[in-house]
Fold this sequence. Notes:
Strand 19 and strand 20 (about 240-245) form a beta hairpin. The strands form 11 sheets. The chain has a 9-stranded antiparallel sheet with strand order 7-8-9-10-25-20-19-13-14, covered by helices on one side. A 5-stranded antiparallel sheet has the order 1-2-3-4-5, with no helix packed on it. A 5-stranded mixed sheet has the order 36-37-42-39-40, with no helix packed on it. The chain is about 10% helix and about 40% strand. The chain has 3 domains: about 25-335, Beta-galactosidase, Chain A, domain 5 (Distorted Sandwich), CATH 2.70.98; about 350-460, Carboxypeptidase-like, regulatory domain (Immunoglobulin-like, Sandwich); about 465-630, Jelly Rolls. It is mainly β. It starts with a helix and ends in a 6-residue tail after the last strand.
Amino acid sequence: MRLILCCLVFTAMALGVLPAIAAESAPVTIIESPDSYTLSNGILTAEIAKRSGSLTSLVYKGTETLDGGPRRPGGYWSHSAASPKMIVAVTIDPKSNQGERAEVSIKGISGGTRMGSGPGGSTIADIEIRYALDRGASGIYTYSIFDHLAEYPATSVGEARFCAKLKDEVFDWMTVDANRNQVAITTYDWNHGTVMNMKEARKMNGGVYQGHVEHKYDYTANQFDTPAFGWSSTKQHVGLWFINPTIEYLSGGPTKVELCVHRDATFGTNLEAPAPPCLLNYWRGSHYGGSSCVIAAGEHWTKVIGPFLIYCNAGPTPDAMWQDSLTTAAKEAKAWPYDWVKGIDYPHREQRSLVSGHLILDDPQLSGASLPNLLVGLTAADYTTAGGRGGPTTVDWQLDAKHYEFWVRADEQGRFSIPNVRPGTYTLHAIADNVLGEYAKADIAIKDGRPMDLGKLQWRPVRFGRQLWEIGIPDRTAREFLHGDHFWQWGLYNDYPRDFPNDVNFIIGKSDIHKDWNYCQCPRADRPDGTPWSITFDLPNAPQGKATLRLALAATSARRIDVSVNGKPAGAVEGLRDNATIRRDGIRGYWVERDIAFDAVLMNAGKNVIKLTIPKGGAMSGIEYDYLRLELDSVPVN
Length: 638
């Protein structure tokens, strides 16, 4: 036996893999100093600052991955735990489990005070930050717990995320998804670029992307469909990734788009300023319509953000490392909720429920009964906050960051199973491609660990009458329209006057949505009275009754859309909120539907023209349509 072991060791030494074998079997340790905790398992070594809960160092197989310094740590939660009253502790001692796992906690006690003396800046809440490391793991978990006590005054949470600034000399390749998996610009490229129409956009004057405009919002992503994203190295062959095992603690459900990967943007004149690779895990952001987390005085509110995994790996190519991160993300999703999380408001698997059901589409006017890309979720019911300067705000699942949301992609026949739902009372929602609107069922009460079968649920989408025509695909994006398939390219709104010198003139039954309808209705400088788009269609007879033009809007920056029928005013959409999606190079923001009802006598037998006009403004102050449909509530008459 000893001879066999010696042979194995000798062979491992010859192949150069003995250090890895030793590292994988090394126990987890914690070294404590007056200012920090250091967690190590032979593969990863992480240093955590006791003062703030920041991650000041993360060494993977001898390589420092973070770019930190005296002014800014390499990894940090936007809401620090720093406070005059701190509680730091080892919450999982590796000495008690033979070195299998270690966890440390940094907690700041607010006491009901604001920034300067309490944690989290202007947010009034106790904030706890934890880090956990397992034996043999090449990733470290982090999570943050907010606790607003009933005796604390009203407060709100601003932009909230975990951020990692990485070593520039190590990481040179960024990966968001299959479309944005590429070598990145260098710090030199960015610092010597020409500023374009906004400070975050610069035209590269050299490097691999010379002539290309770099814009950090070109690397945003739908968080539901992006479980792993990060940076890797083509030289040192290491990668660093953020992995969310679930989106239950994030905001905005399965359609929320947020920043995730980009080169840190510096905006000064210093051409030597650092612009390190950046990773962001947003749970409450202000982008693409934003989200809301407002807590009232007298309200006890707590939320656990995470745990999510900061994952390091090695591989021959960036793509190999990305694929490994996706495999790891799938494993983490199966392991959720983690059984080692204790001492906080975090129900374990046996305390959570599986909620299932079968949605049946009932729409005689929609051919086929399938529900492609069916997304089903349990969320808090819509609620109203006091709001800010704009007054009271209704918060729906698209805006909610205060509560947990549980979403799954169901099958096309409408069957769904939502696992690991916390106890509580929810509203069930469903959205699907090709179906305008959403399904909603209120007051779904989930008990501790009890499965719930909701049975067959009839989904009858709203119809105001017989459908006369439609434009686009109702999928809450502008993807199918011109340029929608490469929306992440900066400045597509500037191409509109060239692509459509006479504006959009769409002919029902003849025009092609992929070519003849732009992804964005962009205001033009040479249209002082507003920029009109026209829709031409024929009717066999002069109609009577009420017609309804249904407008599903994927992005809004214009505040108004005026509608005319055959040259006569038919109504207007007013009070639209700017969700900044267009200027952030997106095709999906806060989605809304607006319906314009008008007297059908405005239409004629034969040719008809509906015009949609948006006010004058800058090229980015437009509208992105998801879908348009005209309905008539009575049969045509002669």
